[in-house]
User: Fold this.
Amino acid sequence: MAPDDSTDVLIDGLVRSAFQVMGVLTRIGAEHDLSLTQLRVLGILRDRRPRMSDLAAFLGLDKSTLSGLVDRAERRGLLARGPSPEDKRAVVVMITDAGRDLVQRLHEDVRGALAPATGRLEPQQRRQLAELLEPVLTPPLVHTPRPTAQR
Amino acid sequence: MAPDDSTDVLIDGLVRSAFQVMGVLTRIGAEHDLSLTQLRVLGILRDRRPRMSDLAAFLGLDKSTLSGLVDRAERRGLLARGPSPEDKRAVVVMITDAGRDLVQRLHEDVRGALAPATGRLEPQQRRQLAELLEPVLTPPLVHTPRPTAQR
DNA sequence: TATTGTTATACTCTATAACTATA
DNA sequence: TATAGTTATAGAGTATAACAATA
Assistant:
């Protein structure tokens, strides 16, 4: 694999951009006493109601890790556990109204924090950048979160 | 601030891309028993020999946190502490040969792991994507690591 | 007095192993 | 027997507070 320059430059940019975005997310999360993982959990739960094990697989975490994460968030009233109709062993996780409010505020904060950066591009360039990112993003590299188990 | 669509779409792409890249970095780090932060420390030390407090500021971490991070990495022989010539209170951190070897291997792994994603673009598109990212990346949003204190 | 770095302490995140209940 | 979830335990990452040494 001949290391071509365009790839190296792009990877460097993607990595730096990742650290930058993660820095923003970490800071904004911290301002609301939320870790990056908690942030992510709330974001995922915005439009899903997964079982513990599915959520763990989606996040690439062990189930025991998720127990603790959900415990703490539930104690703060941000999400709730409930029974699964079709499997008595399973527990589903859902966001609460308070959690939804918080995640909405967080989203606005992130938007505001990144605006100075994205604002350095013209609207047309923003669209183009988003378009160029699309192929890089599909399909996911790390986790393959199929709702239905199928291994 | 009228929420224009191009910004929202771009931010969504940047955040997703960040999680994807971080997932790759986390996985590859874990394969070598390195956390994301350790990975970052080694990367920074590749071409710098900062003092503890400067490195902490650069990473956005407390000095006490860095003490532990450096302890563990030093115990593994990846980096070393040394005295600062001009300030007897200060401690400088430097990467070792072993650390340099490891970071080199990690870099190749990251390149390999992201290749399938970046390979979905033509070389010309890769260059364009990297170019569009550049303004977004400059200057840093989160930390403003001035070598000399100036608050 | 202020700054640099370490240590003590506490909490979160994380995984592994052992366990209970259900499939 | 296998899977879903919890608990116990241990280690890493993180910050705050208190401290010693130096500026």
